[in-house]
Design a protein that fits this description.
single chain; alpha+beta; Aminopeptidase; 2 domains; seven-stranded antiparallel sheet; 12 helices; 23 strands; about 30% helix; globular
Length: about 475
């Protein structure tokens, strides 16, 4: 059938957003599936920022990256990394061009919403030993009850020893859970709002129920737990004061759907972008501009702290690169930053047909339509948004189009429906051209988030192409 004039015109003029699966051949589909298997393995190994940092260091080293502190001089082609306090990672491939001509950065975050233990967590009540908790990041609290949880993190002792804790992933380990009220007696709870139904102080973790065998002792169950921990880790109750212990879902990352097109897993915000960013940099050789991967901590609580994106440690890393490539001088750090460009690699809300009332369908991000570019985030009148410059957006569009990669230009939610932020504005404030560019997910911040395998692979391809420009 011959196309009508109108059909031809429509093809030429309309911005039709294709579904990725309809644009690829069998070889490409196989690449997506095998890349997804690697990503799933990564998710199962990395459920905390510390685990992600360790994974990154191991893989960077295996691909020729060296600790920058062990290098005196850097040359084009050299590959270096810096691990900030075991929780955030900066890695660079030195390019041919002078650094002050600008860097190519892709930045993701490796912390995810979770539940932390309070500094004095352990208590006994009603014949049980429990841990008091304090949630981290934006969660819907009711989602974290009645699911299997594991405990991960560190206990730092006053003698300098740091004990690594990881209980619940091994099939022989116990798991833990936060209980919820049975529906039979939840008449009052059911009438409360979702955010009030389970309160922060109700997120208590169940950890034991056998009493220590001694008539004279009070809090026998608590004592028994401390005795078990003392025998295993040589800690006392006070050592919890200097611990960072995180509760994360015990669920494994899995392929989702009869057609195996999606992935369900904890922590895809933002490990989907962290994995693809890291892999894109690791596979990069001899770029023109110096290319950098940032894996930040603390994004979920405002990018604060010395491992968050606001930390001076980032600029210190760039200053080290300048110093070790012999590019010193007045204002060179500031010039370098102001000439740099960046993809802020963070997930966005995928359009969910069950909750379509929150989206502007014309500007929503759809699973399977490729990486979502967000010119601005923020809330209400773009409050808190860095709002990428049109010229820079055009540049990123060109990179995608030159490499035959799908992308969708998106805006999260209807105007005034809510909002959110990423690390983009922090880097933009330093003078860098930044746009948000990440994977759309369903059930964001829930213990089990959903992404499309097509988008994961597409993000990896675009990050890689961006580094090369
Ligand atoms: Mn995020
Ligand atoms: Mn988030």
């Amino acid at each position: 059938m011959e196309k009508s004039k109108g059909e031809e015109l429509q093809e030429k003029l309309f911005n039709s957003k294709k579904l990725g699966w309809e644009t690829i051949n069998l070889d490409e589909k196989n690449n997506i599936m095998s890349f997804s298997d690697d990503y799933i393995a990564f998710l199962n190994e990395c459920k905390t920022e510390r685990e992600c940092a360790r994974y990154a260091e191991r893989n960077l080293k295996a691909h020729g990256f060296e600790n920058i502190e062990n290098k005196n001089k850097l040359m084009p082609g050299d590959k270096v990394y810096y691990i900030n306090r075991g929780k955030s990672v900066y890695a660079a491939v030195i390019g041919e061009a002078m650094l002050e001509e600008g860097l190519n950065l892709v930045g993701a975050h490796i912390d995810s919403p979770r539940i932390d233990l309070k500094p004095n967590p352990l208590y006994e009540d009603g014949g049980f030993a429990l841990f008091k908790t304090h949630y981290y990041g934006g969660i819907k609290k009711y989602q974290w009850t009645a699911i299997p949880l594991v405990i991960k993190g560190v206990i730092a002792k006053t003698n300098g020893e740091v004990i690594n804790i990881n209980i619940g992933e091994d099939k022989n380990d116990p798991i833990f859970t936060i209980t919820d009220l049975l529906p039979h007696l939840a008449t009052k709870q059911n009438k409360q709002s979702l955010s009030e139904g389970v309160k922060g102080e109700a997120l208590n973790l169940l950890v034991g129920s056998i009493p220590y065998d001694d008539e004279k002792v009070k809090e026998k169950v608590k004592l028994n737990i401390l005795n078990i921990l003392n025998e295993k880790y040589e800690i006392t109750e006070a050592d919890f004061n200097s611990a960072e212990l995180e509760l994360v879902p015990a669920f494994e990352a899995r392929t989702l759907g009869f057609d195996k097109s999606m992935i369900a897993a904890y922590g895809q915000d933002d490990r989907s972008c962290a994995y693809t960013t890291l892999r894109a940099l690791i596979e990069l050789n001899e770029p023109c501009r110096t290319s950098i991967a940032l894996l930040a901590d603390k994004e979920e609580i405002g990018s604060v702290g010395n491992t968050g994106m606001y930390s001076q440690n980032f600029e210190n890393f760039i200053a080290m690169l300048l110093d070790k490539t012999g590019q010193n001088g007045y204002n060179v750090l500031e010039k370098t930053l102001c000439n740099s460009k960046m993809l802020s690699a963070d997930v966005t809300s995928g359009a969910d047909p069950t909750y379509s009332e929150v989206d502007d369908k014309i500007n929503a991000a759809y699973l399977g339509k490729g990486v979502a570019l967000c010119k601005y985030t923020g809330s209400h009148g773009k409050s808190g948004a860095s709002d990428a410059n049109a010229e820079f957006v055009a540049k990123v569009r060109r990179i995608a189009e030159d490499n035959n990669l799908l992308y969708q230009m998106t805006d999260m939610g209807k105007v005034d429906e809510g909002g959110g932020g990423t690390i983009a504005y922090i880097l933009a404030n330093k003078g860098i051209d930044v746009i948000d560019c990440g994977v759309p997910v369903l059930s964001m911040h829930a213990p089990y988030e959903v992404s499309s395998k097509f988008d994961i692979y597409n993000a990896y391809q675009l990050y890689k192409a961006f580094y090369k420009n």
